[in-house]
Every structure is written in C-alpha cells, then in structure tokens.
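Researcher: Good morning. I'm working through a list of sequences from a screen, and I'd like to move beyond sequence-only analysis. For each chain I'm collecting a predicted structure so we can compare shapes side by side. This is the next one on the list. No need for commentary yet; just the structure.
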Amino acid sequence: MFLEDPFGVHRNALLPSLAQRLNTPLAAGEDTTSVEALLALIPAIGFLRVDATTAGGITAALSASEAAGAMGCSVLPHVFPSLHAQLAGVCPAIDMIEFIPQQTGADPTGLLLEREPKIVDGQWQIDQEPGAGMALNWVGVEKYSARAETIDF
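Model: Good morning. Structure tokens for this chain:
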C-alpha cells in the first residue's frame, strides 16, 4: 500500500525526489517532533504517520492530521492505538489505526493499561471513559518500572 520511512527522519528532504520516481505512495512522520515538520512532509507523501507521543501531544497530532486531510493526504497514526483511536474518532483523514497484537512483544503498552483495547468486527471500539483513552494500571506500571519514586505535594 505504501513505502514507509525510506529515509531517517533527518533526511526527509529526500522524500520529494523519491516520490517523483515511484508509483508507490510514501509514508512518513512517525518520528517527527513538530507540527511544522509534519506539515512539510505532506506534499511528498500519501500517508502521514503521525504519533502524538512524539509530535507534541494530542493537539499537535490533531492539527497535523486535520491539515493532512485538507491537503488530500491520508493519516495512519503510529502505534499506541488506544490513544490514536481518540484522534480517529474526530478526524476524518484517519481511516485506520495501527495495531500490533500484544503477543508479538513489539508493543507492550497493553501491559500498562487498565483496560485492554476492544476490536469488534474489525472496528476499534473507542474508549468512552474520560481522558485520553489510556487509563493506566498502576500495578503494571510499577512492575515494569526501572525506578519508582513518590513525590508528596
């Protein structure tokens, strides 16, 4: 469907030249750390790989996703589906979200969450609880932490 991240994030200036030489759309952005840098990618790619955890948070990811959609670029958020499903629920440019099953070991985020994600008939069920869709299981967080510290306020 696309060629993802053909260059490292610091070589994204090469994307337009490559895009002109290929019939396959390019996808990039998952390691990009600002809305401005994400927006600069859009003219050369077919799929924006936004990640709210690196792009500056939910507001930044939503801004970049909406801009991509307005420019005819599809958005496929990078992992953290519980978080990015919230974006997909409000941004029409997001057709799908990336999901890596926990048993692969490639995305252990589920070990830290209070509720496991639900997929019904291939459709992600967006968490309706207040917050960003990622209620933490503090027992799991402590179990997998390298260090724990309590701060009194």
